[in-house]
Amino acid sequence: MKKKSLIIISSLLSCSIATYGQYAASLKLKEDKLNVKAKKMPANIKFSYDCLLTDAMAQAAFTTNNMEVVAVKMAPGEITAEEENKFGQQVYDEVIKTKKEITTGPVYDALKKMTNDLLACRPDNHSKLVYTVHLMDDTVVNAYTAGGQIFVNTGLIKYCKTTSELACIIAHEIGHDEKGHINLILKRIKVAGRFGEVLLTIKQITTPSFNQFNEHEVDCYGADLAYAAGYDPRAGAKLWQRMAKDRNEQESKLAKFLMSHPYSKERYECMKTHIKDNYISLKFD
Ligand SMILES: [Zn+2]
After folding, report:
1. Residues 205/190, Cβ–Cβ less than 8 Å
2. How many angstroms is it from 176 CA to the middle of ligand 1?
3. What is the reported pTM?
4. Do strands 149-153 and 132-136 pair parallel, antiparallel, or not at all (unpaired)?
5. Ligand 1 center to 110 CA (angstroms)
């Protein structure tokens, strides 16, 4: 009992000693946090798919997507948080066969701290998923998630310029889990009677598996969660803009990330609209 209290006290101490500035230095990123206190993400944030539904084709795609989502959700057999976490563990076991993970050092500590700060700001009705963040020793500009496992490549951290940019990406990945996108993929496979085909599912996770509606939803969720934790949500939108510019020059380096997170100018504009609608004081240049 005595030992337990000591551990708690020492972790509290380390929290108060290590400032955000120090974490930013560990990540070699510019600290651009807003002057707002971290809080829980509110439940009443305005969100809309309208900006994506600009023509008849997009509207038709949206309707079809919704019908499919409803059908899959209504089918018997829920995917529990435990099952989803178990799947995440299987994805991790596969990833780790070919990729090297960094589990110590200041960059890892800073990444873990940032992820925990973001998770702590999720709304009260958050999922029961257990999360683990992995720092992958990989120069490819990429981040991905499955069943509470969040993978962040060193290449992505290097590509980011500020702590808010990185926070928006991690929050975006948390969003895919929290918004049930992974759960739906698993449910779809379960409904089709192929739940055992883990390898196929892993392929779905690490290659394009989310549609533009999913991406828009978690772009906004990521911005909102990042803001709740004190980061600048505009950084996420600006990062997409920069990636689009760099895409022509660095096709191979960015290809993988852009492949799993298809960029469109529309998507940047949608995120901008969402931020303007919800955070009036935040202006775009
Ligand atoms: Zn995504």
Report:
1. no
2. 7
3. 0.85
4. parallel
5. 22
